[in-house]
Amino acid sequence: MAYWLFKSEVSTWSWDQQVAKGDAGEEWDGVRNYQARNHMRAMKIGDLGFFYHSQKEKEIVGIVEVIAESHPDSTTDDERWDCVDIKAVRALPKPVTLAMCKDDPRLADMVLVNNTRLSVQPVTEAEWAIVLELAGDA
Questions:
Q1: pTM of the entire structure?
Q2: Which residues contact 93 (CB under 8 A, 6 or more apart)?
Q3: What φ, ψ does residue 134 adopt, rounded to 5°?
Q4: CATH number for the domain harbouring residue 87
Q5: What is the domain count for the chain?
Q6: Where does the chain have alpha helices with state H?
Q7: Residue 49 belongs to what domain range?
Q8: pLDDT of 48-105, one tens digit each?
Q9: What is the largest CA-CA distance in the chain?
């Protein structure tokens, strides 16, 4: 299993909206960055990801699961762009902010800490465990 982080602005797609989709989940569409797209192409059903509210909140708020592997993004006819489908698994007991991640030396190499603009990014198994610890979910 691999671990990921999915970023979304609350005003565009929030954790509450993701949860409301239930087991049917939702396409993680609209990604127009080749690196983020390539990360989605590498995802497998059952992979887990953190759901991150970007912009104002800047915090990891929940865990999602990949429920459909890479397929054409339904929001465009441009065949360069793919997406995956994800469903909410559970909210974290407490959000983990970007500041908390930056302040923890164990997360110094985390993509979120070093490339805050990438909308879909990998998370190592060690980073996953540390974030869960910070969230009180270890």
A1: 0.96
A2: 135, 136, 137
A3: -65, -30
A4: 3.10.590.10
A5: 1
A6: 15-20, 34-42, 98-103, 111-114, 125-134
A7: 3-134
A8: 999 999 988 999 999 999 999 999 999 999 999 999 999 999 999 999 999 999 999 9
A9: 43
